[in-house]
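Hey, can you fold this?
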Amino acid sequence: MHSIAQLDQLYLWHPFTQMRDWLASEPVVIVAGKGAELVDARGRRYLDANASIWTNLHGHQHPRINAAIRRQLSQIAHSSALGFANVPASLLGEGLVRAANPPLGVNHASEFKNPALARVFFSDDGSTAMEVALKLAYEFARRSGNQRPRFLSLSGAYHGDTVGAVSLGHIDLFHRAYSGLLFGSDQVMSPYCYRCRFNTAAPARADAREYRQCRWQCLDQVEKKLSSAQRRGRGYAAMVVEPLMQGAAGMIPQPVGWLRRVAELVRGHGVQLIADEVMTAFGRTTPPQPPGAVTTGSRAEALAKEPGGARLFACHEEGVQPDYLAVAKGLTGGYLPMAATLTTQAVFDAFLGRYEDFKTFFHGHSFTGNQLGAAAGLASLSLLEGPKNLARRRGLAAAFREALATLWTLPNVGDIRQVGLVAGIELVRDWRQRTPFGLQERVGIRVCEAMARRGVLTRPIGNVVVLMPPYCCTRKQVSRMVQALAEAIDETLRSQTTVATEARPRARKSKLL
């Protein structure tokens, strides 16, 4: 065993890891990375197929981000935000507010106007960004007359690991152990089309959102929950959602129009909206380019100027602006831990007062707005807003969609859920019955281990394999990720599957994001 692997197993405790299994075999020790590749201590190369746990946007060792950090290091790495301002954090705040307020247009009839996001509160990671949103929304509701504010989130929700963020979550495996520490929050059904009790469509070889048959009963459930709380005088401070794709729940995508309609319901009940975009922000959900689109030169520049062309946040794809926008992971391009919570001027104003009024927001972090993280964030934002980067994301999303479609021939693939450059592939025992594998069979983990042997690294969520390529990936690299997954599924599950004798229908072309 490599000496570093020995030290790891002797001293470290890894997050969300069954340490008994971890200690049973030699871990991969990452020592270097460049572009979409990682290198281990034995010199083996891997494709980073989950963007280093959903954080890395532009690839490892990106020259512009590296240069920005070096320039900042030559000046100062960190100084306190408690009582002092600094240059890169101020500039990044300006850039985030600009990016968070694109022209959304009027793409649906609604009497409720989207608010403008005007203020940025920096923190450390996704959990703390959500903790900030939670505390702000709670106190704003109290100061607005709601003395018993509660929160509403989706079934299967995961919003972080701090106590407040855990209280918003509804994954028993993660959250039940801490129930004695938590405050209560309500949940409403997630629009999980593949396993929705209201979807009467038989399983097909396509994303379940494409062939679902329902009457939007999931939205009826949201309306009932909001109305019931209002009647009982226990109105909600806010509803919390991950826009377009619910991550740790198993990469659960929302059907087109769901987010917009939920936002209208929430606004209609006088409830605020918290968008947890820790995973989905900064171009992850950019829709694929139209077939045959030109993505270089002047055409690429034109694409960036089209309505919605340069939108960096998932909620904006449906014309929705939340009252609180929590971002982290990709904020610095995956380089440094940094997060931000954006909110409205109205919320900010509710915390203004004389010194002795103590309306201060009593919350903070030692490394809030640190210069190194802000410098990396500025460089990343500059890359994201460039027309070439937008064209690359759109083209890569289209190539990703094309590669993923080849997986429909595998009998253990039940659903393929893609939103932009995020995909979850749900593995099942029998796709015709949507029969799940038992947790004890460790199917997702075993498939990912087989992928690692083929030089592709990712991590499952139960029996859902996640693919989230960095934006620097080539089409060939994306194809290789998907091919490794296909081979790993075949190797792992061949003996457990009775292959159907009838020919597999060809997958439909997706019209989804």
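Oh, and this one too while you're at it.
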Amino acid sequence: MIIFKTIKWRNFLSTGNQYTSIDLDKSTTTLIIGNNGAGKSTVLDALTFVLFGKSFRGINKPQLINSTNEKDCIVEIDFQIGSIDWHIKRGIKPSVFEIYRNGSLIDQTASSVDQQKWFEQTVLKMNYKSFTQIVILGSSTFVPFMQLSAAHRREVIEDLLDIKIFSSMNTVIKEKIRQIKDEIKTFELKKESFLDKVKMQKEFIEELENRGNANINVSKEKIVKLDEEIGNYLKNNSSMEKPLRKYIQEQDQIIGSAEKLRKLGNLKGKITQKILTITEEHKFFTENSVCPTCTQSIEEIFRINKINDAQDKAKELQSGYQELGEAIKEEEDRERQFTILSKEISKLTNGISQNNIKISGCRRQIKDLESEVQIITEQLENKNAEHEKLESFKDNLKITYDELVSRKDLINYYDFSYSLLKDGGVKTKIIKKYLPLINQQVNRYLRMMDFYINFTLDEEFNETVKSPIQEDFSYASFSEGEKMRIDLALLFTWREVARMKNSVNTNLLIMDEVFDSSLDGFGTEEFLKIIRYVIKDANIFVISHKTGLQDKFERVIKFEKIKGFSGMV
């Protein structure tokens, strides 16, 4: 139960820089009176501002600051929940929001929005709408329960019955369902991926075995053909080597002809020159008996001797020259034979060389083919590793299938839980259990206020009204005074339910101008009896400018405006 103890404020609305303080748990019934504009309803705005950061009458936040001082707007409240004392301090200019637990300031690292959310959910355990339905009944901006939308009615009842946790759980489950659906999508993709990997690995192993053996056979056939080619080339070389050796031997026998021809040519040139010289000398002495140069006569004997000598030398040289010509001819024949042999040797050598090149090429191909055969053989021998890889893919596929089944089972469980936690599920069943009590209490308080109708709410919080005069009524059908009686009956009922549930129970009840317009004199008397003798464990504040009520309350607080500032007197 929340026990509100004191509230105080300064520079708030029309209040000055001095604190205005009210003890909230001092008297069972307290009447707050004052003229219009004196500030008697300020307590409502101060209470909702310090707890929820907003005014009860819908005043904009900047307008809550006293227009004269324009700073240091502060509201503070003390209350107790169980053995824990709480002190809340909230202000404007500067902005202040401090929560003290047993005198110690709570960590303020969170944002003010998150801090407010934590405060409502953890400490107060109710939001602004629920608070105004249980603690405050006002005549200004207050919206009675029957004028709330269906969603807001449900929100208030869920707060009262402590079943908002189901809505929170439902939100959590919705998020979990979304996460699991994302995980299912991921596992579906993984499943498809592993299915593809298993299929490709099977095809690879099958192809490895079939293609490997086929390639080995093709390679071996190529090696055999290449070996046959090498044998043919070697056989061809062997057939060329025998004449090659013969030609080389023959060439060795006639080698050096070119050098002999050169020497014989030089000798032939010398002999030819000498023959020319002798021929000229013979011609000179034959044709001349007188020297043509010096004109001296040449002795005949000398001339004849010279002629004879020249003829002898000419014969001798002629004979040698013929022998030299025969020798040259012989060497020329040998040189031609040498050239013919060289060509044959070159032809045979070139053929052998070409065959050797082809043999080397075949051997390289054989080496490559043997290497390929070895690699394929090793792959075939190591295909167990590929089978192990296939088994690994299958294991991962099975794990993925298991994860998918697990997630789908989990999402079915969450879907079932989600259906239970929806508005039509567990919450509706709990509300149905409390509806008879709620309807009973509402009609009890209506009878206490001398209003004899049968007012019931269904699980959707739509009203059904029956009266002795007319069967079909609705809340909107009644006068303002009758509506006020229904609003009060609902307010008292909500407090009774809150007292039973305890989590949102509070000692404080404030009613603003409930006597001043809608309740007639008889209704006022019945209402005063209820707050005196029926409402228990409560500190009730009634704000009114109606006269003649002071003697009916234990305590009276009067507000007046002095020199432009509101205060208690």
